[in-house]
Write a structure and sequence with these properties.
It is found in: Cell membrane. The protein is an alpha+beta fold. The chain has a domain of 137 residues: Spore Coat Polysaccharide Biosynthesis Protein SpsA, Chain A (Alpha-Beta Complex). It is 50% helix and 15% strand.
Length: 203
């Protein structure tokens, strides 16, 4: 990223957990505009212009990009079909329900981010909690032009139905009121228990 874009890159360290990490990253940022990018997702070439244009639309307090995944012919026709179906429903979700996830590369202004309280220090659903805060103050638009490209690694390894089904189950349980810590333990299992124990020990 630093080789493609003339933006200073600062590496920071925080405790494990994406909510903790993103919050820590924002605290070290100095700009008036914030974009949250997952490490397995690539931005389009004109991402800055597209994001700025999206935020200028009346009513928009934040935005995200349309979504795509890095498949190729070697993945086979059935996997490519699954990913096209997933892309269709992902784009419908962010268009019709204004519900982008982290791999849509969300962006907003620092003013709005501070207004809604920013990222919560959680191990899971930090993106959904941020979106729920954004809903209270305005709309989440979609940047025009090229989509972001996310790695298909997870779907290649685990399959569409397992990944998407688990994500939907977690989201449904969240709306039923299950705590984010419980959901994270469901999602990550013993690996998270080890991380939480080590974090508590070092606190």
């Amino acid at each position: 990223f630093s080789q493609r874009v003339n933006v200073p890159v600062k590496v920071t360290h925080s405790q494990p957990g994406r909510g903790f990490q993103l919050k820590h990253g924002v605290e070290g940022a100095t700009g008036d505009f914030l974009l949250f990018l997952h490490s397995d997702t690539h931005l389009p070439s004109n991402f800055d212009v597209a994001a700025e244009s999206c935020l200028k639309r009346p009513g928009n307090v934040a935005g995200s990009f349309a979504w795509s995944v890095d498949t190729d012919r070697s993945d086979g026709w059935f996997f490519n079909l699954e990913m096209r179906i997933l892309k269709y429903f992902t784009d419908r979700r962010i268009q019709n329900h204004e519900l982008p996830f982290g791999d849509n590369a969300m962006f907003t202004t620092r003013h709005v981010y501070d207004q809604i309280g920013g990222f919560q220090e959680v191990y899971l659903l930090e993106d959904v909690l941020l979106v729920e805060g954004l809903w209270k103050v305005g709309h989440i638009g979609i940047a025009e032009g090229e989509p972001v490209i996310t790695s298909a690694r997870r779907w290649r390894k685990w399959g569409l139905f397992r990944i998407t089904g688990l994500n939907r189950l977690i989201l449904f349980a969240h709306y039923l009121g299950v705590s984010t810590e419980t959901l994270a333990l469901w999602y990550y299992g013993d690996k998270l228990r080890v991380v939480m124990a080590a974090t508590k020990k070092n606190a």
